[in-house]
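User: Fold this one for me? It's Ribonuclease, RNase K a.
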Amino acid sequence: MPCCQKSYISIVFLDFTTCFPPCCPVTRPPLPLPSIIEMASLLFCGPKLAACGLVLSIWGVIMLAMLGIFFTTHSAVLIEDVPFTEEDFKGEALQNIYSLYNKVGYNCFIAAVIYVGIGFLSFCQVRLNKRKEYLVH
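Assistant: Here's what I get for Ribonuclease, RNase K a.
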């Protein structure tokens, strides 16, 4: 009987393809159901594409966050990038231009948040690719 207990433990921890010794009257344990991760792989990028996406996301977050800061502080250097029209100079022109600066700055912050999400996705892909390298097939 000890041989059956030992072989059952080795089967549970290694794999289910190991046969029981002939002295064991116990039947084979049921195969485990595949987990959700095994059924649908979350890995859809290769290692180079994932690393490239991570680098570009880091650069995009830094660049867009700085542009957002400069637009919301109404930097005069960026006046060419503010989409104003002739009607914006009528009435309270300075307030209209400042509101346009703020809108462009908020758009830069929104784009930076989207880049953070893409960077997180790329980071997950890099980690999954690293884990795939260590798996034994």
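One thing worth pointing out: Residues 1-19 have pLDDT under 50 and may be disordered.
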